[in-house]
Design brief:
heterodimer, A: mainly beta, five-stranded antiparallel sheet, 53% strand, B: mainly beta, four-stranded antiparallel sheet, 0% helix
Chain lengths: 111, 110
């Protein structure tokens, strides 16, 4: 079993839809959690950190469920420009330098 | 501007011809790492460095070398490239859990 797993998708949704991705992790000692966005053939860029109480940034909401060991990303009112691959990252130490990437979930927003 | 740079961005080479991909960051980060990304396999860590002169193997180190003589630079060396090293390579530096990626180097080994 992989340490960090994501549904690879693709998720095909119409503009304006709400879409949610999950990312499960196997190490219960995991410390920090992040969502990155990666456009085709480009470098991953930090989308948002995931805090224990959940956090929101505009149309994006991230949540953490430690009991069930998953994090989620909710995108409301999807835009064409949201089409990308979304990677979750889980770290395993305080320094944050022991980490694992999920395989990514591809989102395609259609007109 | 805070950034990680890589060179070259694109490279086509032949089996066995030694090459170096440079990586430099201007954020004074101690931790740097190299990844390769292949379809269906996601990002896999090749090597990482926790500080100057401190390097360690990641998940897929075979066929690669690195060095960290200065904090800002972390070159990736392929002594004898093979076709299975054809991939998209990313360098990254890290600060408090957040990774800053370079723009990527697309390498093709014929």
């Amino acid at each position: 079993r992989k340490e960090v797993e994501q549904d690879p998708g693709p998720f095909n949704v119409p503009e304006g839809a709400t879409v949610a991705f999950n990312c499960t992790y196997s190490n219960s000692a995991s410390q920090s959690f992040f969502w990155y966005r990666q456009d085709c053939r480009k470098e991953p860029k930090l989308l948002m950190s995931v805090y224990s109480s959940g956090n929101e940034d505009g149309r994006f909401t991230a949540q953490l469920n430690r009991a069930s060991q998953y994090i989620s990303l909710l995108i409301r009112d999807s835009k064409l420009s949201d089409s990308a691959t979304y990677l979750c990252v889980v770290t395993f130490n305080n320094a944050g330098n022991m980490l694992t990437f999920g395989g990514g979930t591809r989102l395609m927003v259609k007109p | 501007e805070a950034q990680v740079t890589q060179n070259p961005r694109y490279l086509i080479t032949v089996t066995g011809k030694k090459l170096t991909v440079t990586c430099s960051q201007n954020m004074n980060h101690e931790y740097m790492s190299w990844y390769r990304q292949d379809p269906g396999l996601g990002l896999r860590q090749i090597y990482y460095s926790m500080n100057v002169e401190v390097t360690d193997k990641g998940d897929v180190p075979e066929g690669y070398k690195v060095s960290r003589k200065e904090k800002r630079n972390f070159p990736l060396i392929l002594e004898s490239p093979s076709p299975n090293q054809t991939s998209l390579y990313f360098c990254a530096s890290l600060d408090r859990g957040r990774q800053y990626f370079g723009p990527g180097t697309r390498l093709t080994v014929l």
